[in-house]
Amino acid sequence: MELNIKHDKEYQQFTASLGEEDAELAYATPSEEVMDFTHTFVPESARGKGVANKLIEEGLCYAEENGKKVIATCPVVKKFIHRNPDYQKLLHQ
User: Fold this and answer.
1) Distance CA 91, CA 85 (A)
2) Which of 12, 40, 69, 91 lies at 20 to 30 Å from 33 by C-alpha?
3) In this model, does residue 80 exceed pLDDT 80?
């Protein structure tokens, strides 16, 4: 499934348009150097198709490219990072 993911810095979220509904990965910025991924939402009709993983990967790549550390408050993001050790270096200690 090809997704067009947009990053909205003002609303602090990554969004994928899925026709009538959107999937989103929301974050907060507790400090200039840290992104806290707080919430992932995928509409029921699009679940099980890897949409959340693509949103999370986009968010983590953005964090890495911009020299930010990551907090995974969202359990889905936490599980993704645990399963993908390459991203564990981004975790905020």
Assistant:
1) 11
2) 40
3) yes
